[in-house]
Amino acid sequence: MRRALWRVGGWWRYGVIVGAPLALAAGFGYAGGWLAPGRLSAQKLVDQLQANAGVHPGYRRNHAKGVCVAGTFTGNGALQPYSRAQLFAPGVVPVVGRFAIPGGNPYAPDSSAPIRSMALRLTQANGQQWRTGMNSMPVFPVATPQAFYALLQAQQPVAGTGKPDPAKVGAFFAAHPETAAFLAWVKGAKPSSSYAVDSYWSLNAFELVDAQGAHHAVRWRMVPEATADGSAGQGEDYLAADLVQRLAAGPLRWHLRVTLADPGDPTSDATRTWPAERREIDAGTLELTATQPQDSGPCRDINYDPLVLPDGIQASDDPLLPARSAAYADSYLRRTSEEAHLPDSAMAKKEAR
Length: 353
What we know:
- By secondary structure, the protein is an alpha+beta fold.
- The protein has a single domain (2-352), classed as Beta Barrel (Catalase HpII,  Chain A, domain 1), CATH 2.40.180.
- Helices cover 27% and strands 22% of the residues.
- The chain contains nine helices and ten strands.
- It has helices at residues 2-6, 10-19, 42-53, 145-154, 166-175, 180-188, 238-248, 320-340, 344-352, and strands spanning 65-75, 91-101, 117-123, 129-135, 200-201, 206-209, 215-224, 252-260, 280-292, 313-315.
- Strands 1, 2, 3, 4, 5, 6, 7, 8, 9 and 10 form a ten-stranded antiparallel β-sheet that branches.
- It is globular.
């Protein structure tokens, strides 16, 4: 059904595309006092994600379908003038990551949305971690948790049809002009045939802190060495199989490109890009060498909370960051509790994925 919806035009097409990928931000909830109690919470947001995609016990409420990966990150020292984080010094740190498609349905076809995600946990020698979740789109549709929740509500499937109401989806976009940049990107976006050929953006801004304590606003992206050949994936589960095949031939690499903001560049609005002429630094190379099943691999029990940061990296004033953190935690608690109580038949089915 999801593949069929992708082919439909107009607001309906945008609604389907955004509905699944927006789970990439994993919802938004009460954190840091930025929302009044009773109005919006992480629990309400995750409940809405479940209302839209269904409940699949033991799986993440967003990016339910994915694969674990392992490798290393080699810093080259180029970012040391801007951050005192150990991982940016020359050297190698271990990485546990996960590729996924958006949405809460672990059985969705890989072509159901044009967005892929890359989540990473990098562990420094001192034990501090950097966890980051990135996505293969350069801009986010909305700027606030409230707008995201409203979009999810607009996209909730209608009873009896299993599809969102196009009028509600269209009304949301008409009332939110900040979605224009994302919708422009969506018009030309197509599902890639491989995780290996996509670039992955942080979307949110962060701050690097240097040895003197000065702060530098940044965004980053992972840029692949592999290039797309224009081919389309075959079948419903081609992404994981393609990754295994590619890694059997050798490691896959991405370059961490960090963009430095100029004064006045927005750091609290993920719907707005920064000018292309901003300075960009290649900070090092991500090298992935192996995959593991998401149900038994090391990424299974990792909550890729974007606010788990080492000394030298801090959150910006983007309100989506504490919101993502709160909802990630709620989703993690739900799936791990359910997994412990899954009947044998359900666990066998889950592990078969």
